[in-house]
Design brief:
mainly alpha; two-stranded parallel sheet; two-stranded parallel ribbon; 12 helices; about 10% strand
Length: about 400
């Protein structure tokens, strides 16, 4: 039925066969979240960077698989996806072009159905106060459950029933609508980590004494938003009754000024209590993820919940920030869920469902950290496609 999706998640553990540099912090992060480096180096699927070596079209390799994805002409959905696109292009396609214009021109031809960034959608379309992946997913999940409870149009996700002989290849995770540690954290009055709350990343990691519980973070944000909404409603009502002119600036309870437009806020909403230069944000989201599978279960009252950093341990078993596992499958599922939810909302606003492109407001727009405008994935009149890309396109459609 409409707004119902069949979901399958695949994880491929890869191994670059060329020399490469690793950052100790990234390796520690992956180990903390269960990544098995022994498995990667013993069983990882080999790949090489840059241009093809020989006739790649005839071999069973990651590059051949990536070419199949291009042949499918389906929309590509990512979260904070600029670095992901650079990685995919360089590792599975060809040498990176010298200019950004050539790179975006190549991408526009590789994915003619469009590229969509859920981080951009979370900030500029749904206007969440935070837009890191797990926050955006859980926020969409909560709002979707409200729609379902009120018998409104809502998103439904279904999973495959795999045969028993495939069990060793499938990783199941139990996730409820809210984390089991949610009430525990609230009862202990453990303060929320402000940095994690704003960015989904904390330099202290699992050693942080404060809570990284996303449910608690969203609870706090929702409460603050409701308080501000009531305060603004009261002020506007007072101004209307007294004839006082509307002000461009409103003093918030935090002691910081937030610029307000006459008819709403300008630009994406931000958490004001923890603002830092954009370069310090989204570190966790561009760190390579590990292998794994999300929950695939359809016996629950709501759709299965999947999280890239699901707190599966009760917080009483360790520090309040004790985390679960960052997994590629979790991240992929959440990214798809967010996009499906945003599409459902947009489609519900009298949009022509048969119109092209698929979601015009987010079509070929990549989030840029710290910028109020996205990177447009278009082929400029002044940019040509790269030679390596043209050769790959011929290879892709030769058969």
């Amino acid at each position: 039925s409409e707004n119902t999706y069949l979901c399958q998640i695949y994880n491929l553990t890869l191994l670059c066969m060329e020399d490469y540099i690793v950052e100790p912090q990234s390796v520690q992060f992956l180990v903390q979240h269960g990544f098995d480096f022994n498995k990667q180096y013993s069983q990882g699927i080999p790949y090489h960077k840059g241009n093809d070596k020989g006739n790649e079209n005839q071999s069973q390799s990651v590059r051949t698989f990536f070419l199949e994805l291009i042949r499918a002409k389906k929309p590509l959905v990512l979260h904070n996806g600029l670095i992901d696109l650079v990685f995919l292009y360089q590792c599975f396609y060809a040498h990176l072009p010298d200019s950004l214009g050539t790179f975006t021109a190549d991408l526009s031809e590789m994915f003619p159905a469009g590229i969509y960034d859920t981080k951009y959608a979370s900030e500029f379309e749904t206007r969440f106060v935070a837009s890191y992946l797990e926050y955006a997913y859980k926020k969409c999940k909560r709002e979707n459950c409200k729609l379902k409870d009120s018998s409104g149009q809502h998103l439904t996700v279904e999973f495959c029933s795999y045969p028993a002989n495939m069990s060793r290849y499938i990783d199941y995770r139990h996730c409820s609508l809210e984390e089991e540690s949610h009430s525990v954290g609230a009862g202990n009055k453990v303060p929320v980590c402000e940095k994690f709350s704003a960015y989904g990343w904390c330099p202290k990691g699992v050693k942080c004494p404060q809570s990284h519980n996303i449910d608690l973070i969203i609870d706090e944000d929702d409460k603050l938003w409701e308080e501000k909404r009531k305060k603004r409603k009261h002020k506007w009502k007072r101004r209307k009754n007294t004839g006082e002119p509307a002000k461009a600036f409103e003093q918030e309870s935090s002691g910081k000024e937030v610029e307000l437009a006459q008819n709403g806020e300008e630009g994406p909403p931000r958490k004001q209590s923890c603002f830092e230069p954009a370069a310090a944000t989204e570190v966790a989201e561009i760190t390579p993820n590990s292998e794994g599978r999300p929950l695939e279960e359809n016996s629950m009252d709501t759709e299965p919940e999947v999280s890239s950093d699901t707190k599966e341990q009760k917080e009483t078993h360790g520090p309040p920030s004790q985390g679960g596992t960052h997994r590629a499958g979790f991240d992929a599922f959440m990214t798809g869920y967010i996009m499906a939810y945003v599409w459902m909302l947009k489609k519900g606003k009298n949009m022509d469902t048969g119109a092209e492109p698929w979601l015009p407001d987010c079509h070929n727009k990549l989030y840029l950290s710290g910028k109020s405008v996205p990177l447009q994935i278009v082929k400029s009149l002044f940019s040509k496609s790269s030679k390596a890309h043209s050769q790959k396109m011929k290879l892709a459609w030769a058969s």
